[in-house]
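ok so I'm stuck.
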Amino acid sequence: MKPLFSHGPVPGYRMLLCAIAAFALMFAEDRFSSMEGVRAQLSTIVAPIQWAVSMPSDVLTWASLSLSDQRQLVEENGRLREQLLTLSHRVQRMASLTAENVRLRELLGAARHADMPYITAQLLALDSDPFTQQMVVDRGRRDGAYVGQPVLDASGLVGQVTAVSAYSSRVLMLADASHALPVQVNRNGLRFIVQGSGRFDAMHVLHVPDTADIREGDLLVTSGLAGRFPAGYPVATVTRVEHDPGEPFAQVTAEPVAQLERSRHFLLLFPPPPIDTSDDLPLWDDSFELIEPPSLEGGA
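replied:
not stuck anymore, here's the structure
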């Protein structure tokens, strides 16, 4: 008869040990800020495993293409796809700039929006958690990626970088229920907050007054407030506006413009830092001298 623990704990004890280890890691991550660095190091270690997992399909795809006459066409298609992504990045702001020019057509000397630096990235992995909408892309700290960096696809805003390792970055998508950002209606400039709903096809426009001029089909673009996302990039299209009699706020739903479920190629933007104007004008300048008004007593 073989001993009970000759080959380690029985499956029940193994499950208990794994559960205890999992709770210990969750407690450490919640209580200790140093765990962020540990997570980044672990992401760096896991990156080769992610590449190894995707390598068989890439090798099979390459082998099949190398034995066909379409390999040259596929390579050309890849180059054209990158060019299309670059051109789409520039075209995305056309609708916003057109509306802005209509509202400010008197200001002929307004400054032009300069092209923004960016790097391209590809999808590496999707988060398997059904309660979060996150993904991993193949750009990391070595490529200049940073936490808070805006991420776009060929159609619109996708989300922002939330964690960076040496060779990969984790992106929180707009559809995640914990993600919110300031937007404005492209038609009239009204500003609101849009929050994810946990679904790829719906977002909530928060605190919309019942009398606000917002309609189905309105395009919502980034407003540039808070300095995280540059202004003028498409975010979502309003799909439903419900007015409940007696309620101060309307129920407004929008659909993301970006192809969150299908996109595999992305742009990581490098917006300029926000301009701090707090020191431009002092609240009080001692060089100014107060002058008392002349007394009206005793005639003019």
